[in-house]
Amino acid sequence: MLGTADVVTTVVEEIRDIFAEAKRTNKKAPFIVCDPVMVATTGAELMERGTQDVMVRDLFPLCDIVTPNLKEAEKLAGFPIKSPKDVARAAAVIRETGKCKNVLIKGGHSNSAYMQDYLLQDDGEVTWLTTPKVDTANTHGTGCTLSSALAAVSAGGTGTTPGHSLNRNANPNLASHVVLAKAYVHQGIRAGAQIGKGPGPVGQTYWPQEHQSFPWATPTAHEGAEGRYGPFPEVGSPGIQLLPVVPNAEWVDKLGKIITEEKMTSAVHVQIRPKGLTREQLEMEIKKACDLSRKHGIKLWVNDHWDLAIKHKAFGLHVGQEDLFKVDGKGCQTEVDLQEVHKAGLRLGVSTHNYHELAKGLAIRPSYVSLGPIYPTQSKAVKYHPQTLEGIKCWRSLTPPSMPLVAIGGISMEDAEDIIRNGAEGIAVIGAVVGAKDVGAALRAWDKKWLK
User: Fold this and answer.
1) pTM above 0.90?
2) Domain boundaries, the chain
């Protein structure tokens, strides 16, 4: 508790000493989270007069992130917060006046049907994190719990799944840390208990593993609440098991013939990912592939090109994170017209590589999510660490059970059974099929993995 100016000054001096020692020993400085506990849930003032100015002037510039609640944000910004626009403006004012890197305004005390937090990062990226509001009075300690959880995961905490280190497997970034902290708090609210009189404490539970508590991330508050996209149609039956990723329509034809002749049950979904083509060539390729998929009775997923997938009536569309929300701090631009894709009745698959991307993917309620790379891959240069089997377990617990999870990246036939056993319904492969000497034999061997 930073109740007096003297206490703030003492903390500032200690942090400066820690930073100086880190610099002297060539070590990384610790991640500093400041929860400015200024106003209680009841509205009671928790700081002496003048303390706020010292905190903003001396402490905030040393912090990696500041996490006020709505009432505290009003005091720091100097104006009432009545709307999402006010929240965004307050975060910008706090970051500017406090010269802090990142600001998270916690909105759990609002009167909305949702709990929405607003993250403004030092690069200007903005994220609204939303969870459904839990009907409970047992929320005492949510703010302290969130800042503590954020500090823990930022320090590289380890989850309850053995060996699943945040730093090693989950490709961490600040937004991912905040997503995990919010999920932890929401789990705790759901587990809160009435102890004595008044609101009970939020539960202190375990590494986030409940899909009901995992937040969804959007560029605007509206898209996280009443204006949420989807849900997109379910994959249906047969579901995604083997998902070969191919470069052109010729491969769609080749695989379609084999799948039809062999009456395969697993390889009925194929994704086309054309590269290096002009717009005209691209349309011809996708049209041909869609026509061939219908001829062979297979389900074709078009990678990225949403307008052509709609025009030529593909079964589904797969998009990467770079093709979803693009935010510049002034507004939202969407590379994919999600409303048009939904209106056309296409299924939608979304790639994910870290917790923040999973939160963005789940926000639009897709038909499936993919996780990768599971193992090192040679198919393309990737900036993400391998997820391994522990990542699959974690993603399966955080994704609704009805939503298929597809694993991709460096997966060999020998890995398939472990991948499936750990929670993935489907496996996307590239070189394991298109690079096989005998494509028919490779498909038959893969098909047997789901027949056991």
Assistant:
1) yes
2) 5-224, 242-448
Phi-psi region of 404 (alpha: psi -120 to 50; beta: other; left: phi over 0): beta
Contact 372, 407 (CB under 8 A): yes
* pLDDT tens figures, 76-106: 999 999 999 999 999 999 999 999 999 999 9
> Edge-to-edge strands of the sheet including 114-120?
33-34, 65-66, 102-105, 114-120, 126-132, 216-218
pLDDT in tens, 181-227: 999 999 999 999 888 888 899 999 999 999 999 999 999 999 999 88
Handedness of CA 370, 373, 374, 378 (dihedral sign): positive
Q: Minimal CA–CA distance to 178: which of 356, 393, 320?
A: 356
Residue 227, CA distances (Å) to 18, 53, 218, 322, 426 in order: 45, 38, 10, 21, 30
CATH superfamily ID and name for 5-224:
Ribokinase (3.40.1190.20)
| Burial class, 247, CB count within 10 angstroms (exposed 0-12 / middle 13-18 / buried 19+) | middle
What is the mean predicted confidence (pLDDT) over 260-284? 93
Looking at per-residue confidence, does 139 or 317 come out higher? 317
Angstrom distance (rounded) from CA 65 to CA 120: 9
What residues form DSSP beta bridges with 348? 317
Instruction: Return the CATH class of domain 242-448.
Output: alpha beta
318 vs 167 pLDDT, higher one:
318
Write down how long the chain is: 452
Buried b (16+ CB within 10 A) or exposed e, 382-418: eebbbbbbbbbbbbbbbbeeebbbbbbbbbeeebbee
